[in-house]
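Today's session is about reading a structure prediction critically. Students often jump straight to the picture, but the first step is always the sequence itself: look for stretches that repeat, for charged clusters, for runs of hydrophobic residues. Only then move on to the predicted structure, which in these notes is written as discrete structure tokens rather than atom positions. Here is the chain we will use throughout the hour.
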Amino acid sequence: MLESRIILPDMVQLEQDYELTGPLRQTLQLWSPHRGEIITVRDATLQDFRARIAELSIERARIHIVERGDMPVITDRKFQRPEREIILHQALPEKERMEWIIQKATELGVRAIIPFKSKRSVSLEERDRKQKKALCWPRVALRAAKQCRRPDIPQVFPFCTFQESLHMARQSGVRILLWEKQGHGPALADFLGQTYGDRKISIMVGPEGGFTEDEVDLARQEGFEPIHLGPRILRTETASLVIISIIQFVFGDLR
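Below is the predicted structure for this chain, in token form.
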């Protein structure tokens, strides 16, 4: 997965300058940097800092540390494991809701976003008939990452099929498929109590019409657990942000 975090090799001191060359300078380029901009960097102790880009050239950059981040990297409070990686598999919604989902999911800390076509969702051709907005998705994530002071940029994968999206979750220890049919799977609260030891979590959210029975069966074969969020039927963008928020509250950096 794309690594966009700028991690300095030493402990960082406030009001000090640090030079970025080689791989660190290449990583900085992912942020479309400009001189005078404030960025978030991380030091060897995994503490975040805010730094101003003082000098910028093709081969090197010089940053000046201006303040300490609000809190250190959160580890699992029970097992002291590294922060969780949340991967959002999102069925493509209509109109501009995908851009809104990418923006808000970035603010909530997801590690990657995988847009896919399900049987009841629109296709990319239908969505982009008037304007090809899929090309802007990485820029939406970049702007949101800068706005919320993230140390990394979530990767937005190219639009893919339902089966391809399932296969991309094979490295995740926890795989959740949101399904509105109660009685066909556990409630989210019951399921999360069994997942403390897993670092990577894939969440699959369907379109407005929901997943078909065949799609749910295929997802089960790939290790996904159908989960419901209660008695209300949520819009796809609402469901995505609700489950991300809950997981971040239970395992992540929402307090």
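Discussion point for the tutorial: The domain at 17-68 is CATH 2.40.240 (Ribosomal Protein L25; Chain P).
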